[in-house]
Amino acid sequence: MKIGILTSGGDCPGINATIRGVCKTAINHYGMEVVGIHSGFQGLLTKEIESFTEKSLSGLLNLGGTMLGTSREKPFRKQGIISDVDKPALIQRNIAELGLDCVVCIGGNGTQKTAAKFAAMGINIVSVPKTIDNDIWGTDISFGFDSAVSIATDAIDRLHSTASSHKRVMVIEVMGHKAGWIALYSGMAGGGDVILVPEIPYNIKNIGDTILNRLKKGKPYSIVVVAEGIQTDGRKRAAEYIAQEIEYETGIETRETVLGYIQRGGSPTPFDRNLSTRMGGHATELIANGQFGRMIALKGDEISSVALEEVAGKLKLVTEEHDLVVQGRRMGICFG
Ligand code: F6P
């Protein structure tokens, strides 16, 4: 069998470890041929590929980013590098011309949607969920999330000492447009006093009261962790907006930090390396068994898979009933 592999959408730690997991299993265990497709779906439009050998897969396990490059090319939309052709049909033709028996798509929600559409056209696809945001429906965890949470937690830890020295409120903005998983997990792990996620509406008076109550109890500084996607005035970034509102509400000097792309760069954590390796290996196993149109998933501690058509278009969001929210509230953490 000959398989192609691509990475699409925003990068994240663990992509290269996944490529390695897929390809080494394919070459070593199943004797398959593997080609890397450059720049996501764009590479399927332009047939930009490279053949993989064991040698080209060395040094990938701890390497950040994606060695294949990525793009946000969405072939089912008109925009993009080629806009005047039927892009899905061109990709179908190119896959046949390249002799690919299956394409492995490593990506986030947008990629899962695209993969589901190609699967519906009869193309053999297996996908692997990738995003630091952890918002892909159907899997408990996507690789990249643990690494991002670890980086964000380290940043929050560092803010504690400077917040405490200056008796300030520190607001830190982490990624997550629609889902607040990084804010929730890093906020709890980093001992945040206020954690704001897009899924839970907030009231600035509650936030102010939490901070002033801490002051009354002899704790003159506070840490506020916000997801980038929370409600704002629509003009300022989440951290800037919340910091200004808090300073106005409490009169306490407040500073903001936007963590940004540092969350997405660099080496994956050991957890993500192993998750990527397991997911990659399972993707190849599905291909060998002729099970296509599926996304790899982690359920509990088991690696399994779900039908792409079930995943496409859904989001996994934080709920008020989540253990960490419930436990956080019981400990006096303000969620808005
Ligand atoms: O990878 C997901 C994500 O990190 C979001 O949380 C973030 O808002 C987005 O990607 C930004 O990525 P880009 O600027 O590359 O589109």
TrEMBL record:
Mg(2+) binds at residue 109. Residues 2-287 form the Phosphofructokinase domain. Its cofactor is Mg(2+). Keywords: ATP-binding, Cytoplasm, Glycolysis, Kinase, Magnesium, Metal-binding, Nucleotide-binding, Transferase. It catalyses: beta-D-fructose 6-phosphate + ATP = beta-D-fructose 1,6-bisphosphate + ADP + H(+). Pathway: Carbohydrate degradation; glycolysis; D-glyceraldehyde 3-phosphate and glycerone phosphate from D-glucose: step 3/4. It is found in: Cytoplasm. Substrate binds at residues 131-133, 168, 175-177, 228, 255, 261-264. Its main location: cytoplasm. One of its GO terms (cellular component) is cytoplasm. Its EC number is 2.7.1.11. InterPro entries: ATP_PFK (IPR022953), ATP_PFK_prok-type (IPR012003), Phosphofructokinase_dom (IPR000023), Phosphofructokinase_III (IPR012829), PKF_sf (IPR035966). GO terms for molecular function: 6-phosphofructokinase activity; ATP binding; metal ion binding. The record marks 110 as: Important for substrate specificity. Coiled coil: none annotated. The active site is at residue 133. ATP binds at residues 10, 72-73, 108-111. Homodimer or homotetramer. Catalyzes the phosphorylation of D-fructose 6-phosphate to fructose 1,6-bisphosphate by ATP, the first committing step of glycolysis. Belongs to the phosphofructokinase type A (PFKA) family. Mixed-substrate PFK group III subfamily. This is ATP-dependent 6-phosphofructokinase.
